[in-house]
Structures are given as structure tokens and as C-alpha cells.
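job 3f2a | input accepted
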Amino acid sequence: MSESQLEQTVLRKAAWRLLPLMCACYVAAFLDRVNVGFAKLSMASDLGLSTTAYATGAGIFFIGYFFFEVPSNLLMERVGARVWIARIMITWGLISAGMMFVTGEWGFYVLRFLLGAAEAGFFPGMILYNTYWFPRAHRARTVSIFMTAAVFSFVVGGPLSGWLLDHPQLGLRNWQWLFLVEGIPSVVLGFVVLLLLPNGPRDAKWLKPEEKEWLTGVLDAERAAQEKKKHFTLRMALSDWKVLVLGAIYFLNVVGGYGIDFFLPTLLQTTFPQLTKSRLGMLAAVPYLVTIPVMILHGRHSDRTKEYRWHVALPAWWLGLGLLLLSFPLPPLAVVAAMAMCVSGRWSVIGPFWGLPTAFLTGTAAAGGIAMINSIGNLGGQAGPTILAMFQSADGSFSTGLRVLAGLAALCGIVTIGLMPATPSERR
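job 3f2a | predicted structure (428 res):
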């Protein structure tokens, strides 16, 4: 078998064996993270939550996420992906289901904080895990495929959440029923991970000895080449200016992204007040259905051209344009189209983005650096909903807040092009 045939065989095996399970886990994770947007349609009035209280609770998830993310990723590097990812999933599934017991504002805050602390480490852990299996030339596309799971969670979660809200059972309020049902898959998948997920190529029973040898050889050679250029310790990674700039870039993208995610059901309900929650959930899936092929093709193009900065900046700018359009009065169908622009731009950033730090971080430095970038960036999940709530006008309009988010998305692209150095492949 030739080198190229061996490469295709091994990477195809790895993709088919790993990505479906990784994607299923991320669908469950994101469903538990953002189902609060649909729960708000009934929970806010039941519990007497103001728009500000809801935004604070939705965003406080990312405060817990921030404090526990770096330690979580370092522990995964030490104890192995299989046990640690399983632990994360089982814990967050139980806490997500526990949201059904919220009785007031402070209980809402506490459980959202604990949910963030429990999930901390999952996404950066998956990015790190990706580097255990796929050479750099394949990472943007594999991350993009993995990220489609988060988008797909809205495709599934919108209609499912709407239907659950319209059909409560067991004498529960509709939002309690939603949290209970949507927390269960995470717990189940946690046990599946414990049984099926290998820590790395050497533990994969489905790879032949020569396939393991080829894959570990290629990955070890890449790591050695990166470390030869500059050996990064964990301390250096956490204080390196590129890591801090990447955290800022990710923050600017996430601000607009979660501003939309947490308020999209509310914005749609305002635009289509006559729809039932089930139909509203189906409509909410449309922007995400558009996004899936866009982000996959965008990630593949980034890998094929070996260019990452412009592949981050351009979708950040079309996210900003979509947010700006939403700030003006639009016909209903144009609102959905602008939302599709926002969602596809926000998610298309992410695959190429993670090609930037994995180009110079390896080993423990990668574990800490990736987690640091993600934890800084995801503080935008606190800022985005807060900005929309802060600038909400007396008549309930979010126009000013949407324009602020549009400006931050535009800044995301500007910082990427202006401050991130081109990689060697981009300079050729």
C-alpha cells in the first residue's frame, strides 16, 4: 500500500470511528447549553424573571466555564480522554435535568453556573483530542464537521424543544419537562464514551499495527517540528501574546453568536406571534439547516488553501452584516434570512479559527493554551445576552444591542487580519 493510500485509509477509519460519537456528544452538550432559550418562552413568566435576569442567568454559564476550563483540560491530558469526557457528560446531564427544580432567580443563576463548571473542558478537550488523531492539514475540516453537531443540535433541538413545551407530561410545567427530557441523552452518552472512546491511536483496536505506526509517526513528527521552532511550556502558552489575541478574537465572535442563540426564539416569537411553540421551533431550525453545508464547505476550503486568517475574518464580517440587518424593521422572511447569515457566519469562523493555535501549540501547552483561548472567548457568552438586555428599549426592541454586537463582529475580522501573523503556508 502506498503512502497516500495508507493515509486515506487510516484517516477515513479514524473519521468514521470517532466523529459520529464526538458529534453525538456535542449535540447533547449544546442542547443542554442553549435549551434555556426555548425554556424562557414559558419559564420567565412562571418564575417572574425579567429580561435582565434571564440574560444574566443564561450568560452566567460561561463564568463557571471560565474558571474550570483550563484545569479540566489539563486533567484530561493527565487521566485520558475516555474517562474525563465521560465524567463531564454524566455530570452536566444530571445538572441540566436538575434545572427542572429551579424555583426563582437565584436558583436559576446557581444551576446555570454549575452547568458551566460541569461542562468546562468538553469543547477544548475535543479540540485537543482532534490533535491526537488528525494531522494539521486535516484539522479545519474535522473541526468543522465536529462543529456541525452544535449547529445540528439547533436543527433537532428547536423542533424538539417546541414540541416538548406544547406537550408536557408527568404533571410538570412545560419548561420542567423540557429540561428533564433533554438532560437524559448526555448521561446515556457519557456511559457510551466510557465504553467506546479510545484515548489515542495506540489504544484503537480497530487500527492495524502498521496503521497505528504510520499515524503516530506522522503526528509525532509534526509535534517535534513545532517544538523545534519554539518549545512552548504551559506557562509560556498561557502568557503568549498570540494566545491572548486568539482569546480576544474568539470572544468577539462568541459575543454576537450567543447574543443570537439565546434570544433567537424570542426574536422569532416577536416576528411570528401567531405561531405555536412547536411551529416556532421548526422555524428556528431553518437558519441552522442553511449553516451546516456552508460551514463544512468553508472548513474544507480553508484546509485546501492552507489559509486561516481570511477564512476567520470573512464569516465574522457576514455575521456582523446579519446582525446589522436584524436591527432594522424587516419583512418576516427577511428576518429568517438575516438570522441565517448570522448563524452561518458565526459557526463558519470556528473550524479555520482552531487551525491557528494548533499550528504552534503542542502537548501540555496545547491543553492549557486551547483551554485558555476557549475560556476567554466564551466569556462572550455572558456579554452577548447582557448587551441585548442592557440596550433593550422601552418598547422591547433589541435594535441598539444588535448594532453593538454587529460592531464587535466586524472588529473580530479586523483584529484577525491586523494582529495574527500569517502561517508559513499562507506566506508562500
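job 3f2a | The domain at 3-422 is CATH 1.20.1250.20 (Growth Hormone; Chain: A;).
job 3f2a | closed
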